[in-house]
Specification:
Length: 180
């Protein structure tokens, strides 16, 4: 599963220490590390607890367990061998619901370096190459940096409602992007 995706045009074998590379496919340790990034960030900034971290871990593990390289995508942002960000496209229902963009996160220490943009662009390119007609994501109100990236890349807020799918009450949001 996978291989390197050099979004910035860097050649293979020419990685510099401190340079982030984006890798497609499963990376050993990615389930735990992606769950850890989510658990620590959302606990610190939003008060999310064990319910949220268990949900992320369980759903991500299920996704990896049924991962189909032709239908699904997983990209990790690597600094050396350390996973510092991720995004996934779950394509299992892409034909009628749209491709589901999930588990998008970048380590707070690397915010502002364009890594989130690189991850989103890799996911969008994958969806276009697969002929997916729509991408959607579920999030919540207040994540302004993420929302800026979504809207900058053409996503539109389609729904908002009060809910507790992540273990606490928030204004849940659904963003969509129609691909042509």
């Amino acid at each position: 599963m996978g291989g390197f995706v050099h979004i910035d045009g860097a050649g293979m074998g020419h990685e510099h220490p401190g340079k982030i590379r984006i890798q497609r496919g499963y990376v050993p340790g990615s389930i735990g590390r992606i769950a850890e990034l989510h658990g620590t960030y959302y606990h610190k900034h939003w008060g999310f607890g064990a319910f949220f971290e268990a949900k992320v871990t369980g759903e991500l593990a299920g996704f990896i367990g049924r991962y189909d390289d032709q239908r699904d995508g997983l990209w990790t942002a690597l600094l050396g061998e350390n996973i510092e960000g991720a995004i996934a496209i779950d394509g299992i229902h892409a034909g009628y619901r749209g491709a589901h963009l999930r588990w998008f996160i970048v380590s707070p220490s690397l915010h502002g370096r364009g890594i989130g943009s690189r991850l989103i662009k890799a996911a969008m390119r994958f969806c276009r190459n697969r002929g997916y007609k729509r991408i959607y994501l579920l999030t919540f109100e207040g994540l302004e940096q993420a929302r800026h990236l979504y809207e900058k890349n053409g996503f539109t807020l389609m729904e908002q409602q009060r809910g507790s799918m992540w273990g606490i009450d928030v204004n849940e949001q659904r963003f969509e992007l129609t691909l042509t």
